[in-house]
Amino acid sequence: MATVEIRRAARRGGATGRRARPALVLARRGFADARVRTLGFAYVFALYSFLQPYGYRTAYPDAIGRAAFATSFGANKGLRIFYGEPYDLSSVGGYTAWRVGGTLAIAAAVFGVLAAVRALRAEEDAGRMEVVLAAPLSRRATYLGAVTSIAWQSLVLFVAELVGLLAGGLPAVGSIWLALATVSVVPVFAGIAAVAGEILPTRRLALECGGAAVAVFLVLRVVADTIDGGGWLRWMSPLGWAEELRPFTGSRPAVLLLAVAATGALSLVPVAIGRARDLGTGLVAAHDDADENRRLLSSPLAYTLRTERGAIAVWSGGVAAFGFVLGVVSESVSSAGIPKSVERELARLGSGSILTPVGYISFVFYFFVLVASLFTCAQIVATRRVEADQQLETVLAEPIGRVRWLGGRVAVAAGGSIAVAVASGVSTWLGAAAVGVRVPFGRLAEAGANCLPTALLFLGASVLAYGALPRASAAISYGVVTVTFLWQAVGSLLGVPRWAVDLTPFAWIGLVPAEAFKATAAATMVALGAGSAVVGIAAFRRRDVLGA
Amino acid sequence: MVAAMSRASEAAITTEGLTKRYGDVAALVDLDLSVAPGEVVGYLGPNGAGKTTTIRLLLGLHRPSAGRASIFGVDAWEHPVEAHRHVAYVAGEPFLWPSLTSEETFHFLAQLRGGTDVAYRDELAERFELDVRKKIRALSKGNRQKVQLVAALSTRADLLVLDEPTSGLDPLMGLVFRDCIREAKARGQAVFLSSHILSEVEELCDRVGILRRGRLIDQGTLAELRHLSSQTIEVAFSGPVPELPPLAGVVVERDGAGTLRIEAAAGSVGAVVDALAGHAVTSLTTHEASLEEIFLHHYGAKADGDR
Fold first, then answer.
1. Which of A188, A492, B5, B274 has the most crowded Cβ, counting Cβ within 10 A?
2. Which residues pair with B44 in a beta bridge?
C-alpha cells in the first residue's frame, strides 16, 4: 500500500512536472489568501469605472454641454492632481479615461504593494516560508508562485474594470486599453515592493517602503501634470505611463511595453537576491540588538504610543506633503469661461465648487476627511493584530482591565487623527500662502478640524466591528468607509432620492472653508461615533480573546 | 524503498567544517558531522547553542559562512531542491497557515512535495488523535506540532530533520512519537533529532552530539559518552566508615550512617577499588551516568571554566 503511494509520489515528481507544479500550488494558496482584498478592490474598480461614463452622459447629454465642459476643465490644473492630464473631455471615452485612469492607477499601485509584501515578506516573517522551502522546491518557485498569484489577482481587477466600462456603454477596444493601462500598474509596484522585501528585514518596513514609492511616483506625476513644460516627467513615473496610453483618444498601446519591461526587470532582482541570502533576513540586517530604551513602557497606553508613533508620523507627514502641494496648485484654479449652467451640472459629478482657489481647497479637504477616517480604521486594524498575534493575552494576564487597554488604543487613534487633521490644515495653508492665495489661517485650521467628526464616527464604527466581529473587523472597517465614500457619488448619479444619498456621513460635511462648518451634523457624528465605541468596548469586554 | 537502498552507501547527512557567522557572532563553528541511513542521531544543546542554525544550514535555508553540508551527497545550499526530495522537516515553532484545517495543510504540503503516503498519513492522524477538520488557528501549540509531525512522518522521507519535535506534546503523545521514530528507523530512515529532552534522546538515539556555543564538544554512542564520564559508587560498611586516601579524579561524600558516596571520573574506578580493599564492605552499588548527568557535567564544568 505504502509502496504504491511512494511510486505515485515519484511519478508526480518526474522530470517534466517537477518544475512548474509547486509554483502553481503556491500560487493557488496565495490567491485564496488574497481573495478578500482582491474582491474588495475589484468591487471598487468595477463600480468606479461604471459611474464615470454613466455620470458624464447623464450630466452632459449633448455636444454643446460637453464642449463647454471641456473648455472650462481643460485648463483646471487643480483637478489634474487626482485625475492627471485630460486629453479629450468632450467625449465620454476621453472623460472616463481621465477620471478612471488617474485615480484607479493609484489604487492599483497600492494593491500591488500590498499583494507582493503579503505573498513574500510577510510569509517569511511568519516563518511559513521555512516550512514551504523545506519541501523539494526552489526559492525561484516561491517567487514564481507569488508572481502567478499576483497575475491572477490583476486579471480579476482587469475583468472588473472592463465590465464596469462596458456596462457604462464604452466601446470594447478602448475599454480594454484603459483597463490594461490601469491594471498594468499592479505588477510594477508589486515588483518594487518585492525588491523592498528582499532588502528590508520586516513586513512593516517593506510596506512602508512600498507606500513611500507610491507617494514619490504620485508626486512625480502631479508635478508633470501641473507644471508647465514638465510633461516629460510623466515618463519617469509608472503612474504616468497609465495616462500616456491615452485610451479612447488615440490609444498608444506601445506604452504598455514600459510596464512589461519594468515588471520583467524588477522581478529578476528578488530572484537574484533571494538566491544568495539567508531566509528570514533582508540584505539590510534587522536591528536585533538594542540599548535599553525605557521610554513609553510605563503603561499599555504608553506602549501603544511607542508602537504607533511611527504610523502617526507617516500619515501626518504624508498628508502634510500632499496638503502643501494642493495648496500651491490651488492658485491655478479659476472659473474663467465657465458658464453658470455648467457650474450647476458640475455639482452632480461630485466636484461642485472647484472653480475658485478656495472652492478647490474645500473640495480637497473632502479627500482629507477620507484620509483621516482611513487612519482611524488602520489604528483599529492594528489593534486587532495585537490580539491576533497573541500579545494581548500576555497584557491581559497582568492586572490590566480590558476597558483600560482598548480605551488606550482608542485614545491613541483619536489623538493620531487630530495630528493628521492639524497637518492637513496647516500644510495646505502654507502651500497656499507660499503662492499668494489669500485664505485666513483660521479658516484652514477649521477645515482641518472639520475632518475630525467624520474620522471619529468611523473610529467608533471600527471599534464596534472590532468588539463584535473581530475576525471580520478589518474588512468591515475599510469597507464601510469606502462604500459610504462612494455612495454619495453613486447616489447622486443614479438619481437616488435625496434622503437616501444623505445616509452617508460624507454628505453631512460642511465643506469648510467655502461653506460654513455644520455644527449639528458634526455633533451628531461625534455622538454616534462615541456611542458605537462604547457599545464596541462593551462587546469586547464580554467576548473571548481570539487568536488569528 | 528502492531509492533508500541505492542510497544506503551514502551518508544521510555529512557536514565538513560547517560554519555560520551572523555579523560578529559565530553561531556555528567548524561542525563535522555524519549521519548514516537508519541511524537516529540526537543533537543536544541548551537554548542558543546553535541547534536551529545547524538545521537551517542542513536545509539550505541559510548560507554557510564556511564549509559545506550535504544530504545524501547533494550540497544543501547549492542544490536544495534535489536535497529536499529526501528530507522531511519539522520546524521548531509550528508556524502554519491559520486559515487552513489540518487536512488542508496536509494536502497543501503534500502537493508541494509532489506526493505523500496518504494511507499512512491517515493512520498517523488517528494515532496522534488529531481532529483534522479543525483550523490551525483553533489548535493549541501541541496540536499544531502534531500536524507538523504527521505531515513530515507520512512522507516516509529518507531523512527526518526534527527541531525539538515534542515541545508542547503531552506524555502520551510523546510515546506515540517515540514509536513512530522507532518504526522509521526500522524502515531504514535516518533521523536527526534536535532536542533538550534528554530522556527522549537517551531512549531513541544511536548516537548523540552535544553542542555548546556553536561548537560540537562531544559526540559518540551513549556508551562512549559514558565511558568518558564519571560513575557513582555507593559503598556500605559493616564497621566504622574508613577514611580513604585522596585520589585523583575522585570525590568522596559521607552519606549518612555507614555509607560513602563516591564520584569517580573516567579511569579512576580502579584506584577506588584498590583503596576499598581490606575494608569491611557489605554492599557496593554503581550506576552509570545518565545522559542528564553527562550533559550537566559538560555544561556545569566547562561553563565554570569559561568565567
1. A188
2. B195, B210
| Residue A205 belongs to domain spanning | 1-281
Quote the number of domains for chain A: 1
Contacts of B98 in chain A (CB under 8 A): 547-548
pLDDT for res A135: 92
Q: Is A474 on the interface with B (CB under 8 A)?
A: no
Chain A residue numbers with beta carbons less than 8 Å from the beta carbon of B113 are 9, 13, 135-136
Q: What is the pLDDT of residues B147-186, one digit of tens each?
A: 999 999 999 999 999 999 998 899 999 999 999 999 999 9
The reply to whether A276 falls in a domain is: yes
Grid coordinates representing B132?
483534522
Does A9 contact B111 at a Cβ distance shorter than 8 Å? no
pLDDT tens-digit series, residues A289-337: 778 888 888 888 999 999 999 899 989 998 998 899 888 878 776 555 4
Q: Is B222 in the A-facing interface, judged by CB distances under 8 Å?
A: no
pLDDT of residue B305: 38
Structural domain includes residue A441? no
Which of B1, B61, B112 comes nearest A137 by C-beta? B112
The answer to whether position A308 is within a domain reads no
Distance from CA of B117 to the nearest CA of A (A): 5
Is residue A154 assigned to a domain?
Answer: yes
ipTM over 0.95: no
Q: What's the pTM value of the predicted model, to 2 decimals?
A: 0.82
Taking the alpha carbons of A424, A430, A434, A440 in that order, is the dihedral positive or negative?
A: positive
More confident residue, A236 or A58: A236
How far apart CA B183 and CA B89 sit, in angstroms, is 17
Interface test with A, best of B65, B97, B159 (most A CBs within 10 A): B97
Q: How far is B1 from chain A (nearest CA, A)?
A: 8
CA distances from A203 to A41, A269, B56, B61 (A): 21, 18, 21, 19
Nearest to residue A332, comparing CAs of A237, A222, A442, A407? A222
